[in-house]
Design goal:
- The complex is a heterodimer.
- By secondary structure, chain A is an alpha/beta fold.
- Chain A has 16 helices and 20 strands.
- Chain A has two domains: about 300 residues, Succinyl-CoA synthetase domains (Rossmann fold, 3-Layer(aba) Sandwich); about 160 residues, 3-Layer(aba) Sandwich (Rossmann fold).
- The chains are: A alpha/beta, B alpha+beta.
Chain lengths: ~475, ~240
């Protein structure tokens, strides 16, 4: 990071004792209302300081006409005022010794009027001089779930479970999409940060900060385009493999120079170069929002596979086939079981279905101990590097999941276990949640996604090995 | 080592300066390969000739089978313009080809490039482009007519480390083409990666070079050889 003071203050920005809301309001038509609601309903433990010259109190909290009137220190100021008032607020923040700002207001570099860009550069000068890191402008804000700080205009982000994934995004929309997907999948998040126009906090600053953040295990990035992409490469390169970084970038529509005289020139879309550059700096590159989430989740909660041999154990043949197809397409191998393993499976399953990998456990629906026995044999098989367990609910197999739960909970993923246990709402939810929270597996919505997720883990492990000079392509 | 680098750069700089002085946007194939050669990238053995006499001398020096190409800095797409003759195997064929090529070329520049014919059915492409944000970037992919049809390519930002080079060769869909297939030996990955690293170096060290195309880079047995090359210069501001 160019300025060490900014990085130091970024810590306080995310972990303040007191948060001021500049433009706090009780009017639901104002963003200042929603930000206040985020902080209060999010149960922030520190002090909330509403600042509004026209109000005595906001949401039953004493309001101040300016930050200067508040007697204590302010770690973070969330600003939701119209753009033209913001330079004055920045000066006030500087006088007050505020350590960080989340600038939600819009009307800066993103607008057509060149005055917007001018105003933004004025703000950047003010903030840099004062050593204040600024998230935004033109952002929904950020959340730091581990201290119950919801500094955004979306109170519902506080519903997210606490966990190890930090999402840093260039788009508010994608942040919300990912946040809500994470809720539906019970995926634990540490932080969600909307970078907006990136006044002085950009991806490299966030990556550097998050690498040292004890609550974050995996860094997920959503990018559209950067002003200085080489700075991100430097930041990720310096810390590569300290924590996994996964990135999803949109904007593959070609903007390259079509009039180029060479093949190379005409084939070089910015997107292809980004992809190469990210991979080169140890970033795992994915091509969709759901893959970003699945991959980040797997990297946060599963061990890395030691090889590419996958065991696919399915309650029905179809999902097993679907997962096999995707595994192969994604560079994984369908493991050939050790003869001992195969013998056990043959003993436990009648010769009605496919007993070799992918195993169709359908005939054992009524026999929980047989399913458990198959899973156990595969766990112990040295020729298996990762396990997929796929089970679609049927009235007759209702007890199947609870039948193998204890075994998996005790084993705690000595190899990665990615599952697709799918039932109508309410039937297996509790059991799946217990398995996930116990570190027994991660559950994803489709067999294909399960396969892609396990492949992404291997992809990351290959990259890590190459970085350490270990040959990544075993025979 | 340092001395060697300096002479490489001097030679490249001289070629580029000459071209710029002449107001050209590209280097000829011969000049382009000279630049590659000075960085240690293996290129076809070739001699630029201006007359029948020189041509025959070159023919005997290199030996059959041969490829003749019309060679001028103003020629970008030689094949489309009918300025390539391949698999020449006798003096008669050589003279006929020389006369034919020179008659098809306009103006004063009627040079013919006499080139060894590289045998090998695996055609690759290696390139460099100077991105306004990333700077020099290196490309690897399937070469020949497949380059633009399949777009099976990978990019890395220069400077490349050897492992970056190895990664990009494994990243293309057709990466198995580099293995031992259909009786052909596996590609010499050391040399191939070395070429990728060096193409990045050329980009880093020569700011006047905007783009490089080595297409095709043919696997002659295991060994990659630059068979055609084009260097595009930055438009003089």
């Amino acid at each position: 990071m160019s300025n060490p003071v900014l990085l130091q203050n970024l810590k306080t920005l995310f972990n303040p004792h007191a948060v001021a809301v500049i433009g706090a309001s009780e009017n639901p038509d104002k963003l200042g209302f929603h930000v206040m609601k985020s902080l209060t309903t999010g149960r922030f433990k520190g002090t909330i300081v509403p600042v509004n010259p026209g109000a005595k109190s906001v949401m039953s909290l004493p309001a101040f006409s300016s930050m200067g009137d508040f007697p204590g220190e302010i770690g973070l100021a969330i600003v939701v005022l119209p753009a033209k008032l913001v330079p004055g607020i920045f000066q006030e923040c500087s006088r007050k010794g505020v350590k960080g700002i989340v600038l939600i207001s819009a009307g800066f570099r993103e607008i057509d009027d060149s005055q917007g860009a001018l105003l933004q550069s004025t703000l950047a000068d003010l903030a840099n001089k004062a050593g204040i890191p600024v998230i935004g402008p033109n952002t929904f804000g950020m959340v730091n779930l581990h201290i119950d700080l919801n500094a955004s205009f979306t109170p519902e982000f506080s519903w997210l479970p606490k966990g190890g994934i930090a999402l840093v995004s260039q788009s508010g929309g994608i942040s919300h999409l990912m946040g809500f997907m994470a809720m539906r999948q019970n995926t634990g998040v540490s932080k969600i940060v909307g970078l907006g126009n990136r006044l002085n906090v950009d991806f490299p600053e966030m990556v550097t900060y998050l690498m040292g953040d004890p609550d974050t295990r995996v860094i997920a990035l959503y990018l559209e385009g950067l002003d200085e992409p080489r700075r991100l490469m430097e930041a990720t390169k310096q810390t590569r493999f300290v924590k996994p970084v996964v990135a999803y970038k949109t904007g593959s529509s070609r903007t390259g120079n079509h009039a180029s005289l060479s093949h190379t020139g005409s084939l070089a879309g910015r997107h292809e170069i980004y992809e190469g550059a990210l991979k080169q700096s140890g970033v795992l590159y994915v091509d969709s929002a759901e893959r970003l989430l699945d991959t980040a989740r797997a990297l946060a909660l599963c061990p890395l596979p030691k090889g590419r041999e996958v065991a696919i154990l399915s309650g029905q043949a179809g999902p097993g086939m679907a997962a096999s197809d995707v595994c192969e397409a994604e560079g994984m191998e369908i493991a050939t079981f050790h003869p001992g393993t195969q013998r056990v499976i043959n003993e436990l399953l009648p010769p009605l279905a496919l007993r070799t990998n992918p195993v169709d456990m359908g005939p054992a629906w009524y026999n929980a101990s047989a399913i458990e026995g198959i899973i156990r044999a595969v766990m112990e098989d040295g020729d298996v590097d990762a396990i997929l367990i796929l089970m679609m609910f049927a009235s007759a197999n209702r007890a199947a999941v609870s039948g193998f739960s204890e075994l998996l909970l005790k084993w705690k993923q000595q190899k990665p276990v990615v599952a697709c246990l799918i039932a109508p709402p309410g039937i297996w939810d509790e059991e799946v949640r217990r398995l996930e929270e116990g570190g027994a597996l991660i559950n994803v919505p489709t067999p294909e996604r399960a396969a892609k997720t396990v492949a992404a883990l291997w992809q990351y492990e290959k990259m890590r090995r190459r970085n350490n000079g270990i040959t990544p392509y075993p025979k | 080592m340092t001395f060697c680098m300096e002479t490489e750069m001097d030679k490249t700089t001289k070629i580029i300066q000459t071209a710029l002085k002449e107001g050209r946007k590209t280097l000829s194939e011969y000049e382009s390969k000279d630049v590659l050669k000075s960085y240690g990238i293996p290129v076809t053995r070739e001699i630029l000739v201006h007359s029948r006499e020189e041509c025959m001398k070159a023919v005997h020096a290199i030996g059959y089978p041969l490829v003749f190409k019309g060679c001028s800095p103003h020629l970008a797409h030689k094949t489309e313009k009918g300025l390539v003759r391949v698999d020449l195997r006798s003096e008669e064929e050589a003279i006929l080809a020389f006369d034919d090529l020179t008659s098809r070329m306009e103006g004063n520049e009627r040079d013919v490039l006499v080139q060894e014919m590289i045998k090998g059915s695996r055609e690759l492409v290696v390139g460099m482009t100077r991105d306004p944000q990333f700077g020099p970037c290196v490309m690897f992919g399937l070469g020949g007519i497949f380059t633009e049809i399949l777009k099976d390519i990978a990019f890395r930002v220069a400077p490349l480390e050897k492992r970056d080079a190895l990664d990009m060769t494994q990243e293309i869909k057709a990466h198995k083409i580099l293995g031992a297939v259909r009786g052909m030996p596996a590609a010499d990955m050391d040399r191939l990666c070395d070429i990728l690293v060096k193409v990045g170096e050329i980009g880093m060290e020569n700011e006047w070079i905007q783009e490089i195309d080595i297409n095709p880079l043919i696997l002659s047995g295991a060994k990659p050889v630059a068979v055609d090359a084009l260097i595009v210069l930055k438009a003089a501001g």
